[in-house]
# Entry
Amino acid sequence: MSGVLPMNADLPRRPGRPARPVTREHLLKVAREAFSQLGYAGASMGDIAGRAGIRKSSLFHHFATKDDLYREALSSVVVDLGVIVGEALNGEGAYLERLDRSILATQRYFGAHPVAARLLMREFVDGGAALTAAGDVVIAVLENTVAILETGMSQGVLPKTDARQLAISVLGVQFQFYSIPEVSARLVSADVFAPEAIERRALAVVEHLHRLLGVKS
# Structure
């Protein structure tokens, strides 16, 4: 019958539908890599689409705006960290024991996710449009860190000081090593993402933060 397509015929794609569908998680992974390398302003939707091997219109099919993509890419890292830190802090043991577990878990996460620390550090440094696009995500990280420190101070484990100033210093120790992996690798003469290097760094950060926080033994 004329005008009727056979059942196995290729149907035309709807506008905006990817020719080679990719998962949302894959697009977020690509976006995290692009934003961590180029920053919010430097990474365009076209660049991210190219890295993912799809057309820009297909990327917009998943994320309506660059702000939406950036916010979700950043939020996915923060949510992951929030879960592992929350599990460590809410587990059994005294405050210092739980704090140490959270530090170790954070360092192991950064070691297992090479772009995560660089992405977060870029967000803290870039500010401006990036901070606007991120919404309350970054502020939540800071406020949560302040709350953790204030709990230690209220329990007498940490000396009382300006928790907000201290939180910035703590974040620097936590993020810096993995946010500049090329520099860190040259300094420690090792692949910073190798398992033994990750564990060495995790233990070192616990020691460094004990001194920075003035932990009372």
